[in-house]
User: Fold histidine kinase from Enterococcus eurekensis.
Amino acid sequence: MKNKKNNAQYQLTNRFVKILLLLLIVINLAFIGISLISSYRYLNNQAAEIMNTLQEVPQDTSEWTTLVNATTAKDDEDAVRILLENGPMYYSKEGKVIFDKLAQGRALLLFPGIILSENKIYLYQKQEQAGRTVELAVHGTQIVELMVRMFLISLLLNVLAIIIGSLVIYLFVGKWSRTLHQMTKEMTEIETDEKQERHLSVPSSPNEFRQVATSFNQLLDTQRGAIKRESQFVADASHELRTPLTAIRGHVQLIKRRGSQHPEVIGSSIDFIDKESKRLEVLTNQLLALGRPTMDKPLSLISLSKVIQQTAEEFRRTCKQEVTLSIEPEIQMHVDELEIQQVCQNLFENAAKYSHASDTIIITLGKVEEKICLCVADTGLGIPDDMKERIFERFYRIDHSRSSQVEGSGIGLSIVQSIVEKYHGAIQVRDNQPTGSIFKIEFPLR
Assistant:
């Protein structure tokens, strides 16, 4: 029973009934108030009509008994009493009895002139006319009884409205609740699905459920993609780290076995160990750079032109290819200088690794349409169209057959992309003409 009270169908129906009940109470109170005021006004109009009729009667008439009975002909329960200046008093039929009862009745303060007498309701009015005093008692019990009957009918209709409304809302909410139960069941099945291929069914209505299911599927795809990338990252990292470690251990074992008898192998093995250990150090630092969380720290305004110019000049001194620079001066930006140097070094070295010694590398920096643009163009091997997006994946290398010949870990461009996105920039690659590639980075000009 407790679980049933906690479900959405029960709670929504319960709240609907409470709201409907409160609304009907307000409506019924308004109905009672309007009915009482309308009945009171009706009785006052009836009294005013009788008073006006009697006021038109001449003072010297001798038919007062007939006149007072005529004024109450519509309702025998009405009563009229007329007191003339010369002393005579006239009552309508049963008028004396009614006025005697009214003298013992109870007046209502909320409605002036209303008197309750022996379970009957009267409107009492007194008016001074020319040569006479007129007292009037208008019977209002029938009007009140009619109002009570209408109120009882209204209550009955209210009860029916609550019952029918509750049933309808219970059925409709039950339909939505079944949709939620189905979604919950599918989520549980998705959680235990080993293949991780299922998606949540998207209901056609209501819109909120459809949006939730769609957003859940999008989040699910994003999570699965992230898990897949992380799994691939771990596998690739393990492979990349294992290769130099295996080579180092092999040469260590070689020195142990043959070093004493063949000292000439020691020097070459140590050189190889030194080379592979440096490669391992670079790879480890790159992995740490990728896994390091972005820290919010104050950034100083630096001369981007100066930093890129200095980095490019250092690269030019060690590069086999011809390097051409076109750096627009006085371009400034709030960035970390070391991160910008890292972006430049990765792009420059990447261009050099996949270019021949006779090729040319062109480095340009400038402002274009409210953006800061850094371009690194080479005339080397180029990048196939189907691989332009994948080159930013960790450990992905274009030509696997040359991976052993071309130095690198395959995560340099991943580091570049993460740094560029940190500063709300974008990086893209396109073909150079006639051969080669152009890496273009755009930062917003702020």
Notes: The chain has a mean pLDDT of 80. The two ends are 62 Å apart (CA to CA).
